[in-house]
Give the backbone structure.
Amino acid sequence: MGFLIDLIVRLHGAVFGFADRMTRGWFLELAARFVFASVLLVYFFNSALTKVGPGLFGFLRPSDGAYAQILPTLMEQLSYDTSRIAFFPYGLIVLLGTWAEFVLPVLVVLGLFTRVASFGMIGFIIVMTFVDITGHGVDAETIGRMFDGNPSSLIADQRLMWIMILLVPALKGAGKISLDAMLVRSRTTRERYT
């Protein structure tokens, strides 16, 4: 019996050791960025589009909807009149939030400044969740609960999964198939020849 257990342990070690060596440094990192792109890139891009003002330079002046989405309680207090909102800090928060919703997902997908962008997206999701719960007053069913046996709540379950996907590139980096890796290789090559 000991021989059989030893054989199973060695076979397990050989198979999964081989799989680990073949995928180390590229597969998990690329897969996490691919899943993020396929599930959330268009979601965040479409959400960001609702926040830009009209015209070519609309990205410099967020829409009234951006203020309503990001600062719902303040907008309600001011009867939805954005002209009464000071640029600092509130207008700046809305402007940076709008830009972050465009820029951070693209950086994650491209694998450029990936760790910073991934941690930024995690922070963005946390803030977005806080605003949804406290500012938009979503109901308890939408919020859901962890360990409730129901994986369909839009906030507790889905956003926890979003954060989990982002933890891979945040902690491990973008991997060998990324713009970050290209920059490192380019810098190493330049240093070698200078």
Summary: The chain has a mean pLDDT of 94. The radius of gyration is 22 Å.
